[in-house]
């Protein structure tokens, strides 16, 4: 099971994404808890109104719980999964709603919590949430007898080589909009890298496959994809560190800086 998410404020985007019937065969609102709202748009408005009494800007927390394609949870297991994640994130009792998406026979669920404790009117601190996602996933895999995946950090990290990092949530959303799958992109660029003898040859292969090599604001090497989006090159090569990439690309000229900023540069 893969769990990811984070603190957010862009409710307009999420309301549209969560109720998107074009990319999903079925969209189901499974739960509204501690909310007067009866639909997603009103639920976000209600959460935002509560947060206006605080200094919290990223007033809701979004999480995505995604079992493997060959794994199907029962309704009871889904409830346990959401409640377990809620407890581990320290969001017990906070207002929330749950949306289920089903696409090509595969089911996953999104959970939106208000970060605001209405008793104290303070926002929950979402520290170490990435590690908590992984720990919760390992806990649920064991409980439900699912395939055991590896954590990339934290106390549940497996021994041996570090597993490849998965695309961030916003990267996956961006890929859905552009039609450029970050998973497939990483596989292609990794293949090009491993088939290249040096940085110059690799740069040529990137160009041949429609990627423009540019210099990032915070990283030495970025690429711009066909949709104009920027990516850290090191994050798109499996098993390669930024320092190893710098050594490999030594002497390669970067002819143009990025035309616009990106959170991945």
Q: What does the secondary structure layout of this molecule look like, with pairings?
A:
Elements: E1 2-8, H1 11-18, E2 26-33, H2 40-51, E3 60-66, H3 75-89, E4 96-103, E5 106-114, E6 116-117, E7 122-123, H4 129-144, H5 169-178, H6 182-194, H7 199-208, E8 212-214, E9 222-224, E10 230-232, H8 242-248
Estimate the strand proportion.
15-25%
Q: Report mean pLDDT, rounded to a whole number.
A: 85
The largest sheet, given as strand count, sense and whether it forms a barrel, is: 5 strands, antiparallel
Number of domains: 2
Q: Count the beta strands.
A: 10
| CATH fold category name of the largest domain | BirA Bifunctional Protein, domain 2
Indicate the multimeric state.
single chain
Secondary structure tally, helices: 8
* Poorly predicted tracts of residues: 258-265
Main structural class? alpha+beta
Helical percent range?
Answer: 25-40%
**Spatial order of strands in the largest sheet:** 1-3-5-4-2
CATH class of the largest domain: Alpha Beta
Shape: elongated
Question: What can you tell me about this protein's structure?
Answer:
The protein is of the alpha+beta class. It folds into two domains: 2-144, BirA Bifunctional Protein, domain 2; 180-248, no CATH class. The protein has eight helices and ten strands. The chain has helices spanning 11-18, 40-51, 75-89, 129-144, 169-178, 182-194, 199-208, 242-248; strands at 2-8, 26-33, 60-66, 96-103, 106-114, 116-117, 122-123, 212-214, 222-224, 230-232. A five-stranded antiparallel beta sheet has the order 1-3-5-4-2, sandwiched between helices. A three-stranded antiparallel beta sheet has the order 8-9-10, covered by helices on one side. Strand 4 (96-103) and strand 5 (106-114) form a beta hairpin. Helix 1 runs antiparallel to helix 2 and helix 3 (75-89) packs antiparallel against helix 4 (129-144). The protein starts with a strand and ends in a 17-residue tail after the last helix.
């Amino acid at each position: 099971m893969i769990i990811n998410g984070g603190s957010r404020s862009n409710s307009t985007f999420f309301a549209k994404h969560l109720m998107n019937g074009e990319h999903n065969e079925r969209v189901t609102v499974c739960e509204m808890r501690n909310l007067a709202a009866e639909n997603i748009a009103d639920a976000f408005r209600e959460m935002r109104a509560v947060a206006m009494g605080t200094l919290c800007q990223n007033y809701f927390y979004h999480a995505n719980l995604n079992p493997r394609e060959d794994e199907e949870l029962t309704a009871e297991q889904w409830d346990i999964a959401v409640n377990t994640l809620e407890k581990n994130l320290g969001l017990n009792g906070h207002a929330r709603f749950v949306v289920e998406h089903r696409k090509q026979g595969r089911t996953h669920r999104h959970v939106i919590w208000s970060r605001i404790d209405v008793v104290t009117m303070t926002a929950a601190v979402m520290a170490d949430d990435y590690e908590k996602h992984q720990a919760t996933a390992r806990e649920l895999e064991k409980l439900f007898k699912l395939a055991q995946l590896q954590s990339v950090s934290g106390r549940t990290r497996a021994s041996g080589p570090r597993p490849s990092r998965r695309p961030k949530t916003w990267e996956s959303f961006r890929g859905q909009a552009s039609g450029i799958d970050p998973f497939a992109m990483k596989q292609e660029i990794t293949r090009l890298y491993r088939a290249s003898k040096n940085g110059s040859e690799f740069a040529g292969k990137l160009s041949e496959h429609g990627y423009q090599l540019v210099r990032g604001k915070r990283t030495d090497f970025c690429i711009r994809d066909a949709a104009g989006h920027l990516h850290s090159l090191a994050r798109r090569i499996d098993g390669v560190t930024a320092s190893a990439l710098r050594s490999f690309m030594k002497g390669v000229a970067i002819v143009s800086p990025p035309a616009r900023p990106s959170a991945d540069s």
